[in-house]
């Protein structure tokens, strides 16, 4: 009885991390996806701003 209880306890303990791992992985994946999307948006806005600045400079250079 004691031996089987010990095995069951060990099984529960070993399955716990595997249950928490996927959720952590999904959270991390979601965060990374959001971060990359946010980064891309920032990069596109910066590129757009740089283009606008170049256009303004070109417009200012013309008489």
Q: Shape from CA axes? A: rod-shaped
Sketch the topology as an H/E string, one letter per element. H
User: What's the mean pLDDT score?
Assistant: 71
SS class:
mainly alpha
The percent range for helix content is: over 70%
Contiguous runs where pLDDT drops below 50 for at least 5 residues: none
The total count of helices amounts to: 1
Rg on CA atoms, Å: 27 Å
Largest sheet properties = none
What is the terminal separation in angstroms? Answer: 95 Å
Strand content: under 5%
Number of extended strands: 0
What key phrases describe this protein's structure?
63 residues, mainly alpha, 95% helix
Topology, please?
Elements: H1 2-61
Could you walk me through the main structural features you see in this protein, from its secondary elements to its overall organization?
The chain has 63 residues and is mainly alpha-helical. It contains one helix and no strands. It is rod-shaped. The protein starts with a helix and ends with a helix.
Quick structural summary:
With 63 residues, the protein is mostly helical.
């Amino acid at each position: 009885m004691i031996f089987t209880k010990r095995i069951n306890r060990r099984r529960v303990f070993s399955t716990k991390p595997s249950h928490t791992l996927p959720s952590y992985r999904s959270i991390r994946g979601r965060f990374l996806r959001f971060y990359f999307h946010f980064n891309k948006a920032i990069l596109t806005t910066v590129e757009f701003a740089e283009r606008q600045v170049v256009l303004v400079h070109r417009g200012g250079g013309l008489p």
